[in-house]
Amino acid sequence: MNRVKYENFQIDQQLEPIKVGPIQHMDLVRYAGASGDFNPIHTDPEFAKKVGLDGTIAHGMYVMAQVGKLLTKNFHLHQIKKFGVKFKGMTRPGEVLICTGKVKKKIDESKTILLTLEAASESGDVKLSGEAEIACD
Amino acid sequence: MQLTKDIIGQKLKSYTIQVEKGKIREFCMAIGETNPIFFSEEEAKKAGYEGIPIPPTFQTSFQFWGYPEIFEDMRKMGIDTDRLLHMKEEYTYLKPVYAGMTIKAEGEVVDVKTGKMEVVTFRTTFKDDKGEPCIIAEMGIILRPKQ
Q1: pTM for the model
Q2: How many CB pairs under 8 A join A and B?
Q3: CB of B119 within 8 Å of any CB in chain A?
Q4: Are A82 and B93 in contact (CB < 8 Å)?
Q5: The domain A6-23+58-135: what is its CATH number?
Q6: Which of B107, B126, B113, B123 lies closest to B79 in space, CA to CA?
């Protein structure tokens, strides 16, 4: 995305949400290969059951990467100064994720906007919440 | 081995890794990222980048591919990795990272919480070949209660 201007953002302004999924087992296998995270709880249903889960769960970092797409879609990479998340819930194959972002705060002196970010299932089950700091022009 | 606060300050193994454009492409395809700056040097330059940049969470692959024995080292620190859950991840971006760069990672334990909730926070600084920090990553893990 092109560089963004500070005056183009208002408090509570929402980024256009991104919808991901339904997440397939193959998406997680593919992410395991790309990221190098081969923990079998993400790719092997039998193993996942053995450690007390109902089945495989998505990598937390796969979900963070989906929220990261909200940032790359809306901002120039050089303007993204911070991006942090807390993982709140497990994401399972078959689920659809809705990634959203909203302007929480504007800092005039540094032309910085603070965003709150979230990934949730369609039924509103929050998987991850986070924040990003964008240095605008 | 028990988790204690004694491991605060303990360094992780330092490692270097080459940033590869094929790996960036593979990662973007895996997450469904379609922005052309990650796939074409020409598009990247048109958008104001010096080369093909990395997407915001790509550095997670530095760790898994550059330092796969991290979990073994965690166990040596008294972290029961069978109970490990990823709790928090936070990045501070200081300098852009492009395909072709060689990145050096230096990590350490910065915080430990013991008791009912066992939490360990690691901080890793990814530096370019001049030794300048590009990304600081903080990773928080929590251990599921013993059954």
Answers
A1: 0.95
A2: 102
A3: no
A4: yes
A5: 3.10.129.10
A6: B113
